[in-house]
Specification:
By secondary structure, this protein is an alpha/beta fold. It folds into 2 domains: 11-160 and 362-499, FAD/NAD(P)-binding domain (3-Layer(bba) Sandwich); 170-356, FAD/NAD(P)-binding domain (3-Layer(bba) Sandwich). Helices cover 29% and strands 20% of the residues. The chain has helices at residues 11-14, 29-41, 59-62, 74-77, 92-105, 201-210, 235-242, 247-271, 273-288, 294-297, 316-322, 407-427, 456-461, 480-488, and strands at residues 20-25, 47-51, 112-114, 116-124, 129-136, 142-152, 176-178, 193-197, 216-221, 227-228, 310-311, 326-330, 333-337, 340-343, 348-350, 353-356, 369-372, 375-376, 384-385, 389-390, 396-398, 433-435, 497-499. Strands 1, 2, 3, 4, 5, 6, 17, 18 and 21 form a 9-stranded mixed β-sheet that branches. The protein has a 5-stranded parallel β-sheet with strand order 7-16-8-9-12. The chain has a 3-stranded antiparallel β-sheet with strand order 13-14-15, with no helix packed on it. Helix 2 (29-41) packs parallel to helix 12 (407-427), helix 6 (201-210) packs across helix 11 and helix 7 (235-242) runs antiparallel to helix 8. The longest helix is centred in the middle third of the chain and has 25 residues, at 247-271. The radius of gyration is 24 Å and the shape is globular. The mean pLDDT is 93. InterPro entries: FAD-binding_MO (IPR051820), FAD/NAD-bd_sf (IPR036188), Flavin_mOase-like (IPR020946).
Length: 500
């Protein structure tokens, strides 16, 4: 019982008729997509969505640092079934509002239960059910929920804390160290010198947006990142609106245009990487001028798309640097000292506040303890069918989106596959499904091909992730244009699916 409200937080879960057909874990962009597709494509299914937070939104609730925005355009990061009518790069608030409209328009509110953390999930072959233990974070109330199918939409990183390296001397620093993932709401940077450690999308967003709040901000990076700087507008969308074209049509046309352009750009990155590198760095030179050391600060040691290319709409990071409100240092950290950070070059970078925009702490399956018939599941011992179903783990699907395209594109492909799979199982009266290898002797590798894509959180977390094979069906393919056709063509009677 919540003593302040007099409401039992477990009452809504107690009212569920169990077992559920589907339990969805996570109410972020993937979980809301899953719930919407179930509601529309399988209206007879019973389902519930559980999320540890007190509201929907996932990433867009966790991250509240100044300027937080999407790193993908909303015409593709938004859902295919709901037009996006704003600028392509959107703020967290705009994204949450959009998701709220999806919840309201599809009457999903009563199916989402907030404040519940799942600690364990147990599969019983005898009952053909998953049973999870959920604890209400505010009250400690515990409930057990059973479901025929488990849909993991909780993302891939730990929301409670970001990744911060353990640098020598951090305890000696006289100022404040914060991670953007847990940015304090009462932050006051007036008169303070802020150092942002990092070179990715978070650092590139934070630096120009916090520059007016502090005395000075310095972006400290070990090595540079590629950036794409474009106007935060889609000219074809504005033109079609002038022609009074219906928003559904505009959304579909713009979405296809962006998808094609993105696909062609990615292909160019691998077919002609030197030319793409020249183009991206050339944009930095045009903004920053010939006197700026672009070779040192904006020329990465790797070719484009081996790590994610961050977006800086309207060149805001470049403008902050060229305008003197911000500066950039490319060097490595020797240690923290009371006055700031001592660099390996010997220089001292003075700071009152240090923000460690140093990445995520990978958490592939929500820190949930999984068992199958009493045996613990180590997902690194499994092999991932299209990185969404796993050998030896029945009736479970995990959503892992794209890194080179918008996450949501793959979340929707998975959602469409799941509803089709559930239709197939119902039609053939099957209560269990799991993938199986076509060739038991297929060579296996760690989940990520680090020669192809190698961000830090994957380098640190390979041991937590399933294994992959060499064919597309046994790995996470980054090519939406290929997967949209392959997913649609999946034969649910194929021997790769073991039903029971």
């Amino acid at each position: 019982m919540n003593e302040m409200t007099g409401v039992d937080p477990g009452a809504a879960l107690d009212a569920l008729v169990q077992p559920l057909d589907v339990l969805i874990v996570g109410a972020g962009i993937s979980g809301i997509a899953a719930a919407r597709y179930l509601r529309v494509d399988r209206p007879g299914d019973s389902f519930a969505v559980l999320d540890e937070k007190e509201t929907f939104g996932g990433t867009w609730v966790t991250h509240r640092y100044p300027g937080i925005r999407s790193d993908s355009d909303l015409h593709t990061f938004g859902y295919g079934f709901k037009p996006w009518v704003g600028p392509p790069i959107a703020t967290a608030e705009e994204i949450r509002d959009y998701m709220g409209e999806v919840i309201e328009e599809n009457a999903l509110g009563p199916d989402i239960h907030y404040g519940w953390r799942i600690s364990d999930a147990a599969w019983s072959s005898e009952e053909a059910l998953w049973t999870v233990t959920a604890t209400h974070s505010a009250t400690g109330t515990e409930r057990r929920i059973s479901a025929r199918f488990l849909w993991m939409c909780q993302g891939y990183y730990r929301h409670s804390e970001g990744y911060t390296p353990d640098w020598p001397g951090m305890e000696d620093f006289a100022g404040e160290i914060i991670h953007p993932q847990t940015w304090p709401e009462d932050f006051d940077g007036t008169g303070k010198r802020l150092v942002v450690i990092g070179s990715g999308a978070t650092a590139a967003t934070l630096v120009p947006n916090v520059a007016e709040q502090v005395a000075h901000v310095t972006m400290l990076q070990r090595s540079p990142t590629y950036f794409r700087s474009e106007k935060n507008e889609i000219p074809i969308a504005a033109h079609l609106r002038k022609l009074q074209v219906d928003e559904d049509w505009i959304h579909e046309i713009v979405r296809r245009e962006i998808l094609l352009a993105s696909h062609e750009f990615t292909e160019r990155c691998f077919a002609d990487p030197e030319q793409v590198k020249t183009e991206l760095i050339g944009v930095a030179r045009r903004y920053l001028g010939e006197d700026f050391d672009v070779d040192r600060h904006f020329t990465p040691p790797y070719m484009p798309w081996r790590q994610r290319i961050a977006r800086i709409p309207d060149g805001d990071l470049y403008k902050a640097l060229s305008g003197g409100r911000a500066s950039i240092v490319t060097d490595e950290i020797e240690r923290f000292v009371p006055e700031g950070i001592r660099l390996k070059s010997g220089a001292l970078l003075e700071a009152d506040v240090v923000a460690t925009a140093t990445g995520f702490d990978l958490c592939a399956f929500g820190d949930i303890a999984f068992t199958v018939d009493g045996a613990p599941v180590d997902f690194h011992d499994t092999v991932g069918y299209r990185s969404m179903m796993f050998t030896g783990v029945p009736n479970l699907v995990w959503v892992m989106g794209y890194f080179r395209s918008s996450w949501t594109l793959r979340a929707e492909l998975v959602a469409q596959f799941v509803t089709r799979l559930l239709d197939h199982m119902q039609r053939h009266q099957k209560s269990r499904v799991e993938p199986r290898l076509r060739d038991p002797d297929m060579p296996l590798h760690d989940w990520a091909d680090l020669e192809d894509f190698n961000p830090g959180y994957l380098l640190r977390g390979q041991h937590l992730l399933p294994r992959r094979g060499e064919d597309n069906e046994w790995k996470l393919n980054q090519d939406y244009w290929t997967e949209k056709d392959e997913f649609a063509a999946i034969d649910l009677d194929d021997v790769v699916f073991a039903y029971g």
